[in-house]
Specification:
Layout (H helix, E strand, L loop, with lengths): L2 H8 L3 H20 L5 H23 L5 H29 L2
Helix pairs in contact: 2-3, 2-4, 3-4
């Protein structure tokens, strides 16, 4: 096996955590820069983007073993990040006047 594929096999969760970080950064950007009326719509766009980033990272790795597990955990984590950020945005919008 090549060195590159061995590195990816040794660290299979790096791509998963990278998607979670990208999703969290997108949620923060949405919370800060989006108009209050459109924030929740943009969270849906962020979820779609995180799914695309997931597929891109996992397909670029070139490792087939555990592909579906890594993709499902990555997307599920992105959903959890966006649910938590939507709760924070909803609570913040209650106190914003």
């Amino acid at each position: 096996m090549s060195e590159r594929s061995m590195d990816v096999q040794d660290r299979p969760w790096v791509g998963v955590v990278a998607v979670w970080v990208v999703t969290a950064l997108a949620a923060i950007a949405i919370g800060v820069f989006a108009e209050p009326d459109t924030r929740f719509a943009w969270l849906g766009v962020a979820l779609a983007g995180s799914v695309l980033v997931t597929f891109g990272i996992q397909l670029a790795g070139g490792v087939t073993a555990g592909y579906l597990t890594r993709v499902s955990i990555s997307v599920s984590g992105a959903v959890v990040v966006l649910v938590l950020s939507s709760i924070v945005i909803a609570i913040a919008s209650l106190f914003a006047l």
